[in-house]
């Protein structure tokens, strides 16, 4: 499983092409909503879950996929970017995993992400 406390893993920028990495994992009727990428790792938001991808090894051929279903979320927090601090953050508390934190850089649409979660959670 991915070490979600490692801040370096989760400086994410929006990247639509990154969704291709999780396409084989999708269920019938599951849709990709948005995808974000750091240097090699990334996160994909689908209509049913969040899939975190940790690319491992020198060649990057080994990948760890962590599936975080929306149905297991008990609470979440969103911090928007400001004038001088352009990063935004998403903290999610899962019933079985605990706290998961994602950091986004640049002009991430963090409120859209909050809307995805709320739509499938509430």
UniProtKB/TrEMBL annotation:
<dbReference type="Pfam" id="PF08000">
    <property type="entry name" value="bPH_1"/>
</dbReference>
<feature type="domain" description="Bacterial Pleckstrin homology">
    <location>
        <begin position="14"/>
        <end position="120"/>
    </location>
</feature>
<protein>
    <submittedName>
        <fullName>PH domain-containing protein</fullName>
    </submittedName>
</protein>
<dbReference type="InterPro" id="IPR012544">
    <property type="entry name" value="PHb"/>
</dbReference>
<dbReference type="InterPro" id="IPR037063">
    <property type="entry name" value="PHb_sf"/>
</dbReference>
């Amino acid at each position: 499983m991915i070490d979600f406390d490692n801040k370096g893993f989760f400086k994410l920028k929006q990247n639509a092409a990154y969704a291709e990495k999780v396409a084989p994992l999708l269920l019938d009727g599951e849709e990709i909503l948005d995808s974000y990428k750091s240097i090699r790792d990334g996160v994909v938001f689908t209509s049913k879950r969040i899939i975190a991808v940790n690319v491992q090894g020198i060649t990057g051929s080994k990948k760890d996929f962590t599936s975080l279903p929306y149905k297991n979320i008990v609470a979440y927090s969103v911090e928007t970017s400001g004038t001088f601090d352009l990063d935004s953050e998403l903290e999610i508390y899962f019933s079985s995993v605990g706290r998961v934190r994602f950091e986004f850089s640049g002009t991430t649409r963090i409120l859209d992400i909050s809307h995805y979660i709320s739509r499938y959670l509430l």
